[in-house]
Amino acid sequence: MKSPGPCRSLSFARAAAGLALSLSLGACGGDDKGDTDTTDSTAGTQGTDGTQGTDGTQGTEPTTTDGTQGTEPTTGEPIPADCDALVSPSDDDVAALQGALLDAADGDVVCMAEGTFSLNTEISISADNLTLRGAGRDLTILDFSTQDLGANGIKISGDGVTVKSFTVKETPGDGIRGDDVADITFDDISVEWAAKESEESGAYGFYPVGSTGVVIRNSRVIGARDAGIYVGQSTNILVEDNEAYDNVAGIEIENSTGATVRRNHTHDNTAGILIFNLPGLPVQDGKHTLCYENIVENNNGNNFGIPGTSVAAVPPGIGFMVLAADENEIRDNIIRGNRTTGVILVSYNEAIGLEPAEDPNFDQYAEGNYIHDNSFEDNGTMPATPIDGVVGVPTPDIIFDGCLDPDAMAMDPALVNCLWQNGDADYMNFDLCGGLADKSTDLGPVTCEGISLPELPAG
Predict the structure, then answer these.
(1) Is the CA virtual torsion 343, 348, 350, 351 positive or negative?
(2) Domain annotation for the chain: domains and CATH numbers
(3) Using CA atoms, how far apart are residues 234 and 236, in angstroms rounded to an integer?
(4) Global pTM value
(5) Do the beta carbons of residue 417 and residue 367 sit within 8 Å?
């Protein structure tokens, strides 16, 4: 409850935070789908890490007083007029920050001052329409390098939550996670792991799953061992103006429908942008991801994903990878310097190192995708195994495994993966399902205009 004055007392919040810490869960194992809670069916599902328990994922730094909601910080810093609480770094950052969030009412704005908050446990946000805002991405730092309680850095369970203008470092699990929420926004956030290509880093920087209305903008993720920016089993998604590098996957849209991915810069990952459908998840048949005006370049890093996860099967040097996903559009992107290939379209197939898909209703084929008006340059110059042996060196800018649904109506135009006006980009159907017997570089069968996807409502 709010007090009559401009601030709120934190005496209750501190007690509640102490109780919350005493009951906190330790990090769970699973696959890489999240180094996260065992309660999340996707956290460990094949989300790219390919597994169900954790997506393979498994992330730093003075002090004044706690500056909690009851009074102004002892530094004399006033609470900004648009904040309901102001928290400053203190001798007990967990109690101060978690206490402020526990005490917050729906719709409150909890502000964090400049400085480094040292946190050894997961921080939770359960109020609806709450904003957690720092002083700036490079000014407010949440350091989880000593974390030994909880699976993630920040766990969001309230609807309408916005996190904004701060950095999360060195979480052992996902940086910021939201499960089954509506209207979650990540704005001007950085999630970082300092170690290069380390399996000890967290799996995901951002991990909204099972959600509706996801916005990720003006943000950055560095060093995730699965996907830096991940959205899974969700709808109505906007991912714009972000940077992702030194991750296994820069951006991954998985088992989701209705995403716009625009004006992002993904570079120096193992793969730049993944559009995946995986079996065994509660939500299937994701489609309709629109990717445009992205710069996808030099994604040639080693794959340091957890062995056995889906993302660990991705060869280094991939620009875009569409796996078992239908009716997506990739247009007006700059795709360059990816040593294996610019775009690969593949079915979900054990032949590429994936676990068997045991769900009889799973659609394993990549069909009806539309790739047009992109700029390709210097891709495929030194393809990774097994692409080098299967396709050859150099590898074309766009490659397709040639696998088609045998139960689908023959020659249905809606199932054709269309290529249109991609400059002088070259192409190969490498006929994986035919045993590589009938490879073809003929663009004729795939030269067509597909159906353009609508923009999401401006957000």
Answers:
(1) negative
(2) 31-58+144-446 (2.160.20)
(3) 7
(4) 0.85
(5) yes
